[in-house]
C-alpha cells in the first residue's frame, strides 16, 4: 500500500480565495451519525495515575476511526505514557513524532488540492492529558480527523481518487495503531535508546 507521499509531487501553487464558494454540507439524521461515547475504556486505569500535568482538552471528531480510537485506546495510551520511563519514553517520542510529522505532511499535500469546505457533522469529547506526550497523541488524532475531512472534500470534487483517499486513511490509521503497540510492553522491555529487546 503506497503512502500518500509516494504520489507524484505537484508544483507549488498560490492558494486562491474560496470565500465566494459555498461550503458543501452532509446531511445527518442525528447529529454526526456516530454512536455517542458513553464511557472510555481504561477509565479506572487513568484515574489512578498521578499526572505530570493536570490538563483537559476538548477534541472534535467526525470519523468512525477517531471515535473508536478515543473510546478504546486513548485512555490506555495516556496512562501508559504517564508511567513510561527510560527507553520506552524514547520509543514513544519517536513513534508520536513520526506520526505527527507524517500526518502534517499529508495534510499539507491535501491542502494543495483546493476544494470547497465540507461541513461535516462532528462530536466533542473531553480528554485528560497526563503528560506532554499524551498531548501529542491528541494532536495526532486532531490531524487524523482533519485529513479525514479534507480527503473527503477532495474526493467529492474529484481532486483525488477513492483509492487515493483509502490509501491515505489506511496509512494514517496504521501509524496511530502502531502507537498503541509501542505503549503495550512494560518499561523494562525497552533498551535505553528506545529499541525493544529481542524476544
UniProtKB/TrEMBL annotation:
Residues 1-37 are annotated as: Disordered. It comes from the Bacteria. This is DUF1845 domain-containing protein. It comes from Paraburkholderia atlantica.
Amino acid at each position: 500500500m503506497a503512502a500518500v507521499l509516494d504520489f507524484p509531487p505537484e508544483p507549488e501553487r498560490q492558494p486562491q480565495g474560496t470565500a465566494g464558494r459555498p461550503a458543501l454540507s452532509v446531511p445527518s439524521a442525528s447529529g454526526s451519525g456516530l454512536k455517542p461515547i458513553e464511557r472510555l475504556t481504561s477509565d479506572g486505569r487513568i484515574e489512578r495515575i498521578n499526572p505530570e500535568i493536570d490538563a483537559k482538552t476538548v477534541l472534535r471528531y467526525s470519523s468512525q476511526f477517531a471515535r473508536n480510537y478515543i473510546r478504546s485506546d486513548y485512555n490506555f495510551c495516556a496512562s501508559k505514557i504517564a508511567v513510561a520511563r527510560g527507553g520506552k519514553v524514547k520509543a514513544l517520542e519517536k513513534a508520536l513524532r513520526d506520526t505527527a510529522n507524517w500526518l502534517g505532511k499529508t495534510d499539507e499535500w491535501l491542502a494543495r488540492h483546493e476544494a470547497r469546505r465540507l461541513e461535516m457533522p462532528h462530536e466533542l469529547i473531553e480528554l485528560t492529558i497526563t503528560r506532554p506526550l499524551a498531548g501529542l497523541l491528541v494532536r495526532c488524532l486532531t490531524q487524523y480527523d482533519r485529513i479525514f475531512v479534507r480527503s473527503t472534500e477532495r474526493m467529492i470534487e474529484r481532486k483525488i481518487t477513492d483509492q487515493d483517499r483509502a490509501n491515505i486513511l489506511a496509512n494514517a490509521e496504521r501509524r496511530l495503531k502502531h502507537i498503541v503497540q509501542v505503549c503495550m510492553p512494560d518499561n523494562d522491555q525497552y533498551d535505553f535508546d528506545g529499541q525493544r529487546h529481542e524476544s
